[in-house]
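Lecture notes, continued. The same structure-token format from the folding unit now serves as the input rather than the output. Read the line below as a description of shape only.
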């Protein structure tokens, strides 16, 4: 058996069950553990495990920046579940990397608001409420700009 094939087979044997995969992922990163859990639930253990191993290998390679991988995972998981896979993650990683270069090494992260996850507060994020708040914000921004310009 060629050496590369042997390494792949050994890595697959390293994670015989879901718990062993999750333990390894948690030792590396919380976002990694979340993505592995999501991929295994979506694609089943055998197929999800392949994607997780691919991502674990990315964390271990020096060519990838772990905090950028974490950000890419967060962005991937906030997107379409049909695209939750390691290939999508790597394309998002490239976007994050370009963003960091453009912003002088900084990557901006949109954190989730607490009320978004509480179903009792769903009315706060309704489409109508969002439209009204955007209109109010836009009018406040314009009035603030006018006040600033008027004082000059």
């Amino acid at each position: 058996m060629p050496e590369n094939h042997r390494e792949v087979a050994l890595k697959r044997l390293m994670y015989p069950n879901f718990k062993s995969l999750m333990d390894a992922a948690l030792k590396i990163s919380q976002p990694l553990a979340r993505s592995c859990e999501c991929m295994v639930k979506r694609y089943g253990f055998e197929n999800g495990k392949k994607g997780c191993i691919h991502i674990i290998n990315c964390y271990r390679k020096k060519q990838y920046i772990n905090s950028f991988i974490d950000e890419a995972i967060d962005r991937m998981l906030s997107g379409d579940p049909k695209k939750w896979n390691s290939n999508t993650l790597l394309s998002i990683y490239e976007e994050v990397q370009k963003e960091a270069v453009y912003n002088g090494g900084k990557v901006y992260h949109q954190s989730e608001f607490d009320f978004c996850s509480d179903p009792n507060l769903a009315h706060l994020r309704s489409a109508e409420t969002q439209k009204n708040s955007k209109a109010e914000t836009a009018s406040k921004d314009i009035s603030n700009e006018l006040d600033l310009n008027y004082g000059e």
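Point for the exam: The chain has a mean pLDDT of 78.
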